[in-house]
Design a protein that fits this description.
globular, binds 2-acetamido-2-deoxy-beta-D-glucopyranose, 36% helix, TIM Barrel, 10 helices, 21% strand, 6-stranded antiparallel sheet
């Protein structure tokens, strides 16, 4: 562990000196709008971020225009007026809990793409956003990947045209994507349309988490492992796949989870990453925000460990086990992102932090 820390310290030092300055760094996070009452946008410490994503709006399943309810209308307006001009705001469309078939149908024809694109720009401008983000989880076939590539082409063209017509800076266009550039684990093999991504997006948010979870209760896991000696399911391998597919490093923004996944240990005597488990642990859907993990660790006097192989934190009390990212793993991951010359990082989700501990650590480690 000491050796690894040392190597990373050197990497952070060396690369912080040579990192090109022509691209602004991205220090960002998604804000879940459903946390509005407990965690309003006004609670965000904007000094720690460059961009905040509003999560989420969805297009209507028939017209493919963005649906904005009355309550969303005021939440959207409050979000941008509260955060600007301190940070840039990006409207994210989609989300992991939404039906991917709506996007598949929308992207399949020129007419439906046009309706969606038009509405995204209208809504984005109406509420004063600086950009748009698509979180389609996920295209299921090579055809849908092709359609997504086409959507990006037409979306970028529409953004350019709107900017010219209105004499304003164009809206940013980003997408949240799978941790790897192709779905090598899936039965239906498909890969993202990298040339279209490269040409039409400002950057991509690579979702470097959820590698392990409640769907496999046989053993504990580091759900956002930086390294995995036994497979290609890790953040380092995923990011490498994007780079090898041709996406410039300065278009890659690394996802960092502000939550953990939980398991029930078979025995509290065997408690590392990969220890035998018999079921899911505490938390809704066997997940806990970083803030909940900190409270759990305190209340239960949990034992906290660092796993140098996966670069992750874990804690356990009795047989309840949580794998998560803490200050130490976040520092090393940011060092890795710097060494890899990535554009920046994003958190899912900003409301999961505890007293800004992780966001501060990340921002400080990244540097200006
Ligand atoms: C947004 O909402 C928060 C919390 O409800 C409130 O304190 C703040 O004044 C609002 N901001 C604006 C610009 O409306
Ligand atoms: C969207 O469509 C409407 C109606 O055709 C049009 O007036 C408007 O300019 C379009 N907006 C954009 C951003 O293309």
């Amino acid at each position: 562990m000491a050796g690894l820390k040392f190597v990373f310290s050197i990497l952070i030092f060396v690369f912080s000196m040579v990192v090109a300055v022509d691209h602004e760094s991205i220090k960002s996070a998604y804000w879940p709008s459903w946390d509005y009452s407990t965690f309003p946008a006004s609670a965000i410490d904007t000094s720690l971020f460059t961009h905040i994503f509003y999560a989420f709006l969805m297009p209507d399943a028939v017209s493919y225009k963005l649906m904005v309810s009355k309550s969303e209308c005021s939440t959207l307006a409050n979000f941008t007026s509260t955060l600007k001009p301190k940070v840039k705001t990006i409207l994210s469309i989609g989300g992991g809990d939404e039906d991917p078939n709506i996007f598949a149908r929308m992207a399949a024809t020129k007419m439906s793409r046009k309706s969606f694109i038009n509405s995204s720009i209208e809504v984005g401008r109406k509420y004063g956003f600086d950009g748009l983000d698509l979180d389609w989880e996920f295209p299921k076939t090579p055809e849908e990947m092709q359609d997504l590539g086409e959507l990006f082409v037409e979306w970028r063209a529409a953004l350019k045209k709107e900017a010219t017509d209105t004499c304003r800076p164009p809206l940013l266009l980003t997408a949240a994507v799978y941790f790897a550039s192709d779905f090598f684990l899936a039965e239906v093999h498909r890969a993202y349309h990298v040339p279209s991504i490269k040409k039409n997006l400002d950057w991509i948010n690579v979702m470097c988490y959820d590698y392990r979870g409640s769907w496999d209760t046989s053993s504990t896991g580091a759900h956002a492992a930086l390294f995995d000696p036994a497979s290609l399911v890790s953040t380092s391998d995923g990011l490498k796949s994007w780079i090898e597919a041709g996406v410039p490093r300065k278009m890659l923004v690394m996802g960092l989870p502000l939550y953990g996944h939980t398991w029930q240990l078979e025995s509290h005597h065997i408690h590392g990453v990969g220890a035998p488990a018999v079921g899911v642990g505490p938390g809704i859907n066997a997940q806990m925000t970083f803030s909940e993990v900190m409270d759990f660790n305190n209340k239960q006097s949990a034992v906290v460990g660092f796993d140098p192989v996966t670069v992750s934190m874990y804690s356990y009390a009795g047989t309840s086990w949580i794998g998560y990212d803490g200050p130490m793993s976040i520092t090393l991951k940011i060092g890795f992102a710097r060494a890899f010359e990535l554009r920046g990082y994003f958190f899912w989700a900003v409301s999961g932090d505890k007293d800004w501990k992780i966001s501060k650590q990340a921002s400080m480690t990244w540097g200006p």
